Amino acid sequence: MLRLLLFLPLLAAPGALPAPRRRRGAAPPTAPYLTRYLRQQIDHFGFDENLTFQQRYLIADQHWKKDNGPILFYTGNEGDITWFCNNTGFMWDVAEELNAMLVFAEHRYYGESLPFGNESFSDSKHLNYLTSEQALADFAVLVEYLKTSIAGARYSPVIAIGGSYGGMLAAWFRMKYPHVVVGALAASAPIWQFGDLVPCGTYFSIVTNDFKKSGTGCSESIRNSWNAINHLSSTDAGLQWLSSTFHLCSPLKNLQDAAILKSWLSETWVNLAMVNYPYKADFLQPLPAWPIQEVCKFLKDPSLSDKLLLQNVFQAVNLYYNYSGEASCLDMSETATKNLGQLGWYYQACTEMVMPMCTDGVNDMFEPQKWDFDALSEECYRLWGVRPRPSWILSMYGGKNISSHSNIVFSNGGLDPWSAGGVTQNITDSLVAIVIPDGAHHLDLRSRNPLDPKSVQQARALEICYMKQWIEKARHSH
Q: Which of residues 23 and 28 earns the better pLDDT score?
């Protein structure tokens, strides 16, 4: 069941990046930043326990104008901060133009910032401090520390920048700590994917649309594949055929395994929608330019027999998992990079980050599945001994009632399923929406690339324009 739909989908344990290598849409090759640590309270909101941990952050001041030049502050999300740093080329691209210092702050419980070391994920008692509120408090304390400890930074205006869950944190940072950050760029931030603020099916209908637009017969082939799998998985011989056709590392033994195969395929299609970039990239996996178009070349005829159809589906997913040609078999437990923190995100989805999702098989290409909060709650209780609180995020951050806030740019890509829960229309003249029709998941935060569509070039120009306004305004207030 656990379709805890995953930001930068998380099905791999957190792991450190190897030495940064040159990627398209990434930071320069040798790490141009210093790694630092700050001692943080494990619990910012209670006084009984005075335990602390080391929060990692990365800092780059090559272009910083020492006399209160601005600080661009990346609000780290669910993974290793060096990986986000290497995939947020936009900040590196604009540092010189804005005379800005760059800071990338790691989110507690991810990467190296583990409050209880190896025990951090041992039980719900140790996980109790993994919340967005505690993470924002870490960020606020870190900004104050930087301003007091770095000569010439006392009055530096700070702008929060983040993508996906990090984009939500950037927006919430500005909302909750407006005295700490002068503005925020929240890229692909689904702050409204909660409660009943948006329909639960929009996310999957956007994924479906991406495939529909990328090739005739493509989304229909995927829609027909579920029944084909159901037919074949009803016999032992069929399960064996599926295992060998999909080159699975561990063979399917029963219907439960077949259900895992289907959810692995679903997640693959979702990931492709998120990383449908206009150039070769290796954000979640190494992929060609416009990967959905490439995948759809294998999925042209939805009327094929079950076996022929599924052989084509294998060719399509093989492009995602084995574009480099190095995989000897496909592992259903891995759908994305190992730099994302699976366990931590599952726990967050079981507590605060309750994002209703559903499919109907009509407006989307997936098997029908209603949003089932009770099943989620039971699964969370079984895994962690905790129950999710679906309305807490709305109480905490205001849901759609946010017009009293200011200086937040929400950017969303038209190809990105997470735009379903994003802010895609201006709320006030300083809570601004930028929609990038040809953009997938936070394309605007990636490095400039000659193959960038015009819409993302214009979006970045507008984002820079707003940041300059915030910086200028902050200057005049001192």
A: 28
